[in-house]
Amino acid sequence: MSAQSLSGSCLSFFKEQLPLQQYNSWIKPLIFEIDGEKLVLTAPNSFTLRIVQERFLPEISKRALPFFSSPPQIELRIEKRGSKVTVPPVQQTSSKPIAAPTTKAVKNPNKLNASLVFDTFVTGKANQLAHAAAIQVAETPGVAYNPLFIYGGVGLGKTHLLQAIGNLVSKQNPQARICYIHATNYISGVVRAFQTKNFDEFKQFYNSLDLLLIDDIQFIADKPGTQQEFFYTLNSLIDTNKQVVITCDTFPKEITGIEPRLTSRFTCGLTVAIEPPGLEMRVAILLQKSAASGSPISEDVAFFIAKHVRSNIRELEGALNRIEAYARFHKRAISIELAKEALKDLLAAQNKQVSMENIQKTVADFYRIKIVDLLSKKRTRVIARPRQIAMCLARELTQLSLPEIGNAFGGRDHSTVLHACKTIESLRNSDSALNADFNLLNQTLRG
């Protein structure tokens, strides 16, 4: 039986089982070869190989059994510039974060925050791909993915990952020339270079870097001079295998006021999203932050805070700081009752802002349909999908039960609401446009 048959079997299976985006990213690029009683798998890069090892190798091994007389040995390879490099045998990868660095970045005018390292970054479903990509880039800068483009809403950890990359690269190579800079400061640098007619020094500095970390790139929109200079900088660094990592609040092709050639360059490496954290991840973040501050809280208190502060990590930290300060001032232990007192203004504003009527009106206006259509029995896609999104938002943003939500949408039962929520949660993992719509509606409703 041929390697082509084995490849076809595996590709067909995974194409049925996985979202198209995951299939195209991780499975389709694999090359299958049979060498005697050995199965050779070649991936285009080490990051893809790591994902395949962690997620898909057991199933590939299982599907390979009929093609060999005994369970085959599996050899993993990475294809590099026409040659194939064999990597060590498959080992169980550790989930322990990389240790915090002890050295600081060299020649870095915008100093890295030593506390923002992989050790202090809480991972979960919402950010696991971005976290894995960041570690890969930090371990092999200029090799894994270039540029790495991380996008997501405010306060979700993009800057933390950016700085963690810089800190790990600095630890591994103290002589590396690293620059972490916010896009607004980069713009100011371009303006000063124009004013002083000193572009040679400006270009020389950025072209000499080993690692450029640029935060909130959306701020260069509608600034053609800055975009031109950044395009040249980006090309120069990538062409010389120097690593660039960029963060943004939205998917590259959805940034308005950016030149197409720059958008194209943004997407030539790897683009990964960070989503708003789920409940369990919010609890984990609170427990870690409270322990680090010396005022550990119980899981009950963490769950209470996490259920009421849902939008981003920054707001979670703010709520925790407020509770800790309130406890210190009143010289009381932190409990759910104390948390309610400390956050009473936030809780009152939250209950006042988000209502079922507001959710339905906001979603209907966003998709340019009538509220009456959301409540109707119509099942056309242009009506059904916004209805499912509205139900999912209602479950996340209100305290209403599933039957109460169903009743508010034309008397539907709780199973319909549950199905809608599961459908939207699944689609958010595979449909970046729908996910962006959902996040925008979520943030709009939260005010």
List keywords for this structure.
single chain; 447 residues; alpha/beta; GMP Synthetase, Chain A, domain 3; Rossmann fold; Helicase, Ruva Protein, domain 3; 4 domains; 5-stranded parallel beta sheet; 4-stranded mixed beta sheet; 9 strands
Map the helices and strands.
Blueprint: H1 3-17, H2 20-27, E1 31-35, E2 38-43, H3 46-64, E3 73-80, E4 83-86, H4 128-139, E5 148-152, H5 158-172, E6 178-182, H6 183-196, H7 199-207, E7 211-215, H8 224-239, E8 243-248, H9 260-266, E9 270-274, H10 279-293, H11 299-308, H12 313-330, H13 336-342, H14 344-353, H15 356-366, H16 371-375, H17 381-397, H18 402-408, H19 414-430, H20 432-446
Brief synopsis:
55% of the residues lie in helices and 11% in strands. The protein is an alpha/beta fold and 447 residues long.
CATH architecture call of the largest domain: 3-Layer(aba) Sandwich
Question: What is the percent of helical residues?
Answer: 55-70%
Question: Unreliable runs, pLDDT <50, ≥5 residues?
Answer: 87-110
Distance between the termini: 61 Å
Total helical segments: 20
The CATH topology of the largest domain comes to Rossmann fold
What is the CATH top level name of the largest domain? Alpha Beta
Percent range for β-strand residues = 5-15%
Q: Element order, helices and strands?
A: HHEEHEEHEHEHHEHEHEHHHHHHHHHHH
Biggest β-sheet, characterized? 5 strands, parallel
Radius of gyration: 25 Å
Shape: globular
Q: How many distinct beta strands?
A: 9
| CATH level 4 superfamily of the largest domain | P-loop containing nucleotide triphosphate hydrolases
What structural class results from the helix and strand content? alpha/beta
